[in-house]
Amino acid sequence: MSIQPFHTSTDVIHTHMTLTLAGGTSADVVTADFRYNVLEPYAVRASFALPGSPAVEWVMARDLLREGLVMPAGLGDIRIRPTADGIAIELVSPQGSAILLGDVAPLVDFVTRTCQAVPDSHENEFFSIDAELDMLASYTRSANRAKGHDGA
After folding, report:
1. Do 16 and 102 touch, CB atoms closer than 8 A?
2. Number of C-alpha atoms within 13 angstroms, CB side, residue 46?
3. For residue range 72-88, what is the model confidence (pLDDT) as tens digits?
4. Strand, coil or helix: what is 21?
């Protein structure tokens, strides 16, 4: 028996943009890549990188990004808010924090495209926790058999 994902689309929505570090100089440029996969309908993955440095990936709720375009949003490690001339994304970790500033238009377009792919409040049509748990159980049973365990 083969367990299939709840939704098999491979649609990935992507946008690339340049942000600047708040309080920095115009040379403090951060590249950002935002990705949305319809197979993960609740999440947006964002990679941020300084020139010459490896990218760091953050995962946020699509709702957080969408809300942050029009009003301050987020209470945790990621906070997003509109500014007079764009958008501010604040990232907080045990290693430090950064506020990134940029143009809001690429993110408005990105969020619009994600909502066209998976309409708001329809995420559950693209994701099934039961199907995910079934796949996890199947993988666990297969791994146990490969190790010589009976899987009980």
Report:
1. no
2. 24
3. 999 999 999 999 999 99
4. strand
